[in-house]
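retry 2 of 3: previous attempt timed out while embedding FE2/S2 (inorganic) cluster. Reduced batch size to 1 and resubmitted. Inputs unchanged:
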Amino acid sequence: MSQFFENHIFCCTNRREPGNSRGSCAEKGAEDLRDYMKKKVKAAKIPSARVNAAGCLDRCELGPCFVIYPQGIWYTCKTKEDVDEIIREHLQNGRFVERLRLP
Ligand code: FES
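retry 2 succeeded.
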């Protein structure tokens, strides 16, 4: 069976109420990072990748959380530079970005 996308990136953009003990990815800037990633993937013309917002991925304390399928590789991205590195290394060069991986 063929796959439509080679890489499907899910970005948690869940937001919890302020003061929640687990925090949330949205309060750490996940929405901006998701928008930035979407724009950059499109600009880089990577037709085999799709970026989608996701609900809570249950790793809130480590966020903002991203997971890329089909490999099932988890990342945390805190800055636009982190996003750039994932696009360049993971999506374009096929190399995992170890420094941003979640265990
Ligand atoms: S709020 Fe993002 S993983 Fe839970």
